[in-house]
Amino acid sequence: MDCIFCKIANGQIPSKKIYEDEKVIAFHDISPEAPIHFLVIPKDHIQSVNEISEENANIISHIFLVINKLVRELNIEKTGYRVVNNCGKDGGQSVNHIHFHVLGQRELKWPPG
Ligand code: AMP
Ligand code: ZN
């Protein structure tokens, strides 16, 4: 499948990887919007939140456990951070492989644009 994040997950495209296990991979965003900006993705191709079902929903809790571990390692668990998922056109999703952004080490504005 011609999916850039599947290619990152299987090593066909290089990334600045910060974590990997059998189910997920985390890597620095190529175009960071904060001093810390990484993405966590499942290795399996799931398009978006629209494709979460009873069958695959456990990957989401796993992703949040990985985020919990990584924010501690990066020392932003106390200062705070933002976890973002963009879904579809109006959500601003540009890569159609579900991913969670984690942004930190600066004060983020709210609401988003
Ligand atoms: P979204 O707009 O929510 O779909 O987010 C896609 C994110 O993927 C953007 O923040 C991009 O900067 C990032 N991105 C695209 N290609 C790569 C890549 N090859 N390596 C790392 N991050 C990427
Ligand atoms: Zn994919």
Automatic annotation (TrEMBL):
SUPFAM superfamilies: HIT-like
PROSITE patterns hit by this protein: HIT_1, HIT_2
UniProt key word Lipoprotein: no
Broad EC category: hydrolase
Cross-referenced InterPro entries: Histidine_triad_CS (IPR019808), Histidine_triad_HIT (IPR001310), HIT-like (IPR011146), HIT-like_sf (IPR036265)
Coiled coil: none
Record key words, sorted: Hydrolase
CDD domains according to UniProt: PKCI_related
Pfam families with a match to the protein in the record: DcpS_C (PF11969)
EC number: 3.9.1.-
HIT domain: residues covered: 4-113
Gene Ontology molecular function: any one: hydrolase activity
Keyword Transferase set for record: no
Name under which the protein is recorded: Purine nucleoside phosphoramidase
Lineage: unclassified sequences, metagenomes, ecological metagenomes
